[in-house]
Inverse folding.
């Protein structure tokens, strides 16, 4: 097994991780059909809350906000206002990693482990995750904070990412991996977020 393969299977840690949220815009969200778009957004917001709780940097980007894609979801703006203010505004570049401003923002975090979610798996997420891996980053793609219009698109994108060395994960799994101990103050706060975000459990006040 090569050193690269070993790195890609290592546990993510809060000290070495950055969160990357791509194009969770109110217009583009309408393309998500394989899961409920509001559930996908809820998980993206939960990722942002987890990052804030654990002191993990967040990089946000949006594409053509003044067109049909629309602005980033207000919930993300409220949860992470600093990251929203510093978001990378792309002018139509499909692969966010190909935008030098976006890539520079990710590199500037100094983190080599990336937790990435994009509003659409088959367009917004698949390309930058693969390119980030090719540039030496460890990447986990959060599937339930992303989605596609059809299952075929989703399945094809997932297979392509896995073949390239991207690790597939879910919101709860990556949060548990990063917190490591629910008995810590951060862990206690994140348990509350997880319970409150569950559609089967009434929010805890």
């Amino acid at each position: 097994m090569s050193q690269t393969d070993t790195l890609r299977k290592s546990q993510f840690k809060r000290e070495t991780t950055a969160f990357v949220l791509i194009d969770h815009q109110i217009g583009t969200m309408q393309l998500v059909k394989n899961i409920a778009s509001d559930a996908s957004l809820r998980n993206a917001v939960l990722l942002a809350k987890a990052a804030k709780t654990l002191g993990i940097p967040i990089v946000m980007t949006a594409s053509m906000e003044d067109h049909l894609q629309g602005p980033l979801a207000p919930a993300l703006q409220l949860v992470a206002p600093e990251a929203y203010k510093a978001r990378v505004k792309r002018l139509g570049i499909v692969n966010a990693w190909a935008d030098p401003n976006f890539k520079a923002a990710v590199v500037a975090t100094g983190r080599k482990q990336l937790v990435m979610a994009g509003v659409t798996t088959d367009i917004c997420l698949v390309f930058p995750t693969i390119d980030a891996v090719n540039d030496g980053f460890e990447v986990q793609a959060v599937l339930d904070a992303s989605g596609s219009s059809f299952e075929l698109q989703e399945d094809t994108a997932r297979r392509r990412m896995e073949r390239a060395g991207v690790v597939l994960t879910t919101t709860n799994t990556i949060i548990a991996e990063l917190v490591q101990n629910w008995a810590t103050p951060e862990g206690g706060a994140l348990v509350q977020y997880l319970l409150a975000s569950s559609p089967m459990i009434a929010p805890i006040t």
